């Protein structure tokens, strides 16, 4: 694929972003708490993460706080914040970033006002919406489909039947992959406690950054994790037992959404629209330039984690996911049912969880078709 040609201005933007917008240290990572609980406890020293250098007139908010993960499934902010596209879209409004390991702690930060907009998996978004009785957040865009697998030690696990008595890691209690695993196990007749992870299979909640070492040390037998963690485990000798895409019609399912605090959306729709334009533009560039996008995402991961992915891991992980503006809303109800089956929530009403109005305005302005909320849009 062709590489993009950068103007002097875009090069300056890129360098500034690399120096500031994604320079989040490990000390800034928020740790896990409950499954989308309402209380948030963040350190005032770390709650804002890194702040970019803004230029030009500000929009209605002086700063927009954006949360995302150091995962390839969050390729849009990884690339768009690094290369300055997000900062360019919001002009003089500053961008403050916060990096998370998994969705439940990100929901806590959104509830507390520590972040305003976030890239996040569907399960924590669903639970955050349901627990707040529809008042906390809105899903405003899609981001990624695919990019999650159950990978296991082939010496001890050759089939689903071999999972009994084994230790399988997920990123956090109640995160999207945790729910996917528990739903899958329930469908195979395994009994699990969703709170503790105890049961026929021991579900071990482990930070993604620690999972490869835990696997290499024999502390876990496998993991249901997003990319690139899954491909890192494969590089350690693990084998893919279940590619989550195989469980969905057409292989399409939402793995990452964009959400916004309803308070911030009401107060600053211009900022939200600008961030969505940056997201749409970044996704278009990624789709048109996958080879360069893959390298740019890896450069962002190196900035955030201190280490780039080996080429073999990067190639395998990148091939598993697709960026998309479409939230794939028709798959969200199924995701909610998985959370019910897993024992995290009761049967929810998701009516009104989406507000795609600003996204569809951005898409229309760029000559692109509107996306659907599948009957779950704002009322």
TrEMBL record:
It holds the Pfam family NMT1_2. Keywords: Cell inner membrane, Cell membrane, Membrane, Signal, Transport. Its main location: membrane. Residues 1-32 form the signal peptide. The lineage of its organism: Bacteria, Bacillati, Actinomycetota, Actinomycetes, Kitasatosporales. The keyword Cell membrane applies. It is found in: Cell inner membrane; Periplasm. One of its GO terms (cellular component) is plasma membrane. The keyword Membrane applies. InterPro entries: ABC_SsuA_sub-bd, NrtA/CpmA_ABC-bd_dom, TAT_signal. This is Sulfate ABC transporter substrate-binding protein. PANTHER family: ALIPHATIC SULFONATES-BINDING PROTEIN-RELATED (PTHR30024), TAURINE-BINDING PERIPLASMIC PROTEIN (PTHR30024:SF47). Coiled coil: none annotated. One of its GO terms (molecular function) is ATPase-coupled transmembrane transporter activity. Belongs to the bacterial solute-binding protein SsuA/TauA family. Belongs to the CmpA/NrtA family.
């Amino acid at each position: 694929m062709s590489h993009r040609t950068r103007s002097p201005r875009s090069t300056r933007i890129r360098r500034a972003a690399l120096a500031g917008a994604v320079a989040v240290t490990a000390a800034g990572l928020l740790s896990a708490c409950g499954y989308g609980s309402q209380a948030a406890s963040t350190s005032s020293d770390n709650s804002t993460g890194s702040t970019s250098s803004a230029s030009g007139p500000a929009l209605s908010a002086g700063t927009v706080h954006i949360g995302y993960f150091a995962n390839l499934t969050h390729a849009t902010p990884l690339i768009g914040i690094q290369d300055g596209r997000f900062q360019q879209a919001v002009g003089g409004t500053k961008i403050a970033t916060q990096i998370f390991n998994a969705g439940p702690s990100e929901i806590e930060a959104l509830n507390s006002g520590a972040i305003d907009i976030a890239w996040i998996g569907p399960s924590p978004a669903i639970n955050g919406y349901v627990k707040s009785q529809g008042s906390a957040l809105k899903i405003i865009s899609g981001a990624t489909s695919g990019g999650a697998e159950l990978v296991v030690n082939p010496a001890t696990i050759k089939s689903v039947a071999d999972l009994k008595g084994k230790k399988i890691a997920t990123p956090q209690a109640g995160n999207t992959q945790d729910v996917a695993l528990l739903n899958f196990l329930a469908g195979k007749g395994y009994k699990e406690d969703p709170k503790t992870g105890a049961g026929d299979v021991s579900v071990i909640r482990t930070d993604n950054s620690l999972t490869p070492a835990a696997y290499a040390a024999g502390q876990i037998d496998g993991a249901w994790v997003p990319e690139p963690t899954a491909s890192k485990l494969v590089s350690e000798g693990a084998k893919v037992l279940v590619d989550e895409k195989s469980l969905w019609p057409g292989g399409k399912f939402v793995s990452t959404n964009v959400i916004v605090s309803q308070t911030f959306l009401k107060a600053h729709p211009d900022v939200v629209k600008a961030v969505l334009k940056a997201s749409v533009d970044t996704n278009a560039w990624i789709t048109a330039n996958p080879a360069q996008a893959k390298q740019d995402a890896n450069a962002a991961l190196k900035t955030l984690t201190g280490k780039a992915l080996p080429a073999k891991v990067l190639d395998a992980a990148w091939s598993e996911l697709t960026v998309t503006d479409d939230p794939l809303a028709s798959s969200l109800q199924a995701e909610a049912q998985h959370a019910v089956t897993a024992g995290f929530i009761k049967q929810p009403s998701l009516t009104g969880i989406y507000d795609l109005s600003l996204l569809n305005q951005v898409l229309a302005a760029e000559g692109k078709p509107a996306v659907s909320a599948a009957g779950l849009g704002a009322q």
